[in-house]
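ok, trying the design again with the full structure, not the truncated one.
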């Protein structure tokens, strides 16, 4: 026990210059986590919000549940889709839209 306490005091006496490095390491880790996880998620969220804002009638969309349909009308927070094969009309919340497929089909 005495040697452990002696090592702590000796480390604090000799390690005065390493305190800057010990503070730098957590800051560096926070920076890496931000760049690798938080920033890409923010970009993805921004693109999704822009996609929802640009929805218009006639767009072909896919919902998060996998339903594909064509937008018939838009409301504040919902939209009406026409779903094949029988032309069934369903109302879906805008936040359930996963992707707009109109542009993808045109490029094929």
């Amino acid at each position: 026990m005495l040697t452990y306490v002696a090592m702590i005091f000796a480390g604090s006496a000799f390690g005065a210059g390493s305190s800057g490095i010990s503070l730098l390491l957590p800051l560096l880790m926070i920076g890496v986590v931000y760049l690798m996880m938080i920033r890409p998620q923010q970009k993805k969220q921004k693109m999704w919000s822009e996609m929802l804002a640009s929805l218009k009638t006639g767009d072909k969309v896919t919902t998060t549940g996998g339903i594909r349909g064509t937008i018939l009308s838009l409301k504040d927070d919902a939209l009406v889709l026409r779903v094949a094969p029988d032309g069934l009309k369903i109302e879906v919340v805008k936040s359930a839209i996963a992707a707009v497929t109109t542009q993808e089909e045109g490029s094929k």
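Keeping the full-length input from now on. The radius of gyration is 27 Å.
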